[in-house]
Amino acid sequence: MFTGIIEEIGKVITIKNEDTNIHFEIACPFVSELNVDQSVAHDGVCLTVTKCSSSSYWVTAIDETLQKTNLASWKVGSKLNLERCMVLGGRLDGHIVQGHIDQTGTCVERKDENGSWLFTFEYDSSKGNVTIEKGSITINGISLTVVNSLATKFSVAIIPYTFEHTNLHAVNLNDTVNLEFDVIGKYVARLMK
After folding, report:
1. Collapsing DSSP states into helix, strand and coil, what is residue 165?
2. Which partner from 16, 37, 38, 87 sits 20 to 30 angstroms from 60, CA to CA?
């Protein structure tokens, strides 16, 4: 379980293919605090630490994960939003995030608002996911608030701190992002069917 509040930016330093799996070696500032079997959200994708060294750690993405996320597009040097799992009894500064990506979305607008940024993303609504204005959405692991909600698109307004301290500043038109829709909204939508 996560909150969508990004702790650090990590960097992919090695990629190894094995059958249908891809193993990623990640460098990050908190690597000395990690152990094998811990969960870490990488651009919103919950992956298990499989090996640690003094300066990096490894995770594995299986085919199911690769099909539903943008991990297959990662390259050596890709910068990732990282968040370790929640600690019970801590503050929930974002919203409840599972680290289970529902689908990807495409950036269709990036607008400089002279002190903030407005990003608009398009997604395939036939998968049953919905957004609501002022509701929560997770983009590349970042807990954000929807400011405009349409049938196949939504927008988010980004403050300077979030723009500078996540990899959102590198998202441009036509880029693919990982989307996790609000878990409560998903249950309500499912019950309404």
Report:
1. helix
2. 87
Task: Please give the Cα distance from 35 to 55 (Å, whole number).
Answer: 13
The residue to which tokens 């490894």 are assigned: 58
Within the chain, which residues score under 50 in pLDDT? none
Residue 77 sits in the same domain as residue 108: no
3-class secondary structure for 23-78?
EEEEECCCHHHCCCCCEEEECCEEEEEEEECCCEEEEEECHHHHHHCCHHHCCCCC
Q: How far apart are CA 152 and CA 124, in angstroms?
A: 6
Containing domain of residue 74, as a range?
8-84
Q: Give me the CATH number covering residue 59.
A: 2.40.30.20
Residue 98 counted as domain residue: no
User: 52, 84, 116: which is the final residue of a domain?
Assistant: 84
Residue 97 covered by a domain: no
pLDDT tens digits, one per residue of 51-90: 999 999 999 999 999 999 999 999 999 999 999 998 888 7
Instruction: Report residue 176 as tokens.
Output: 């693919």
In whole angstroms, give the CA distance from residue 192 to residue 187. Answer: 9
Number of domains in the chain: 2
Question: Is residue 144 helix, strand or coil?
Answer: strand
Q: What is the residue type of 105? A: G
